[in-house]
Write a structure and sequence with these properties.
Radius of gyration: 13 Å
Number of strands: 4
Distance between the termini: 14 Å
Helix content: 25-40%
Largest sheet: 4 strands, antiparallel
Oligomer: single chain
Strand order of the largest sheet: 2-3-1-4
Structural class: alpha+beta
Order of helices and strands: EHHEEHE
Shape: globular
């Protein structure tokens, strides 16, 4: 399995996460369409005004698709929010317990 974590902080991140929270059902629905989807988490950060998202998929193709889908959703639905690009971290999962 593969994971990708997108961390948003700085300019516009507070506004972006307020918008994401308002549309959480739409975002969950979108992420569930990603091929190989396993799980998705969206959380506000206690260290900044922004937050993070974490997507787990069966393979790297799935996590790459999730990044593309997230970027597309933001460009369509949050174009009015000037937000710094997220820090993206990705890798292979060692343990995934649910």
């Amino acid at each position: 399995m593969d994971v990708v974590v997108r961390t948003y902080s700085g300019k516009g991140s507070k506004e972006l996460f307020s918008l994401l929270e308002e549309h959480k059902a739409d975002i969950e629905k979108l992420m569930r369409t990603v091929k190989g989807f396993v799980s998705y988490t969206l959380a506000r950060s206690s260290e900044s005004d922004g937050g993070l998202s974490m997507t787990v998929c069966q393979d790297k193709a799935g996590t790459e698709e999730s990044v593309r889908a997230a970027k597309e959703w933001i460009s369509k639905n949050a174009a009015n929010i000037s937000v710094d690009a997220p820090k993206v971290s990705a890798g292979s999962i060692i343990i995934h317990a649910t």
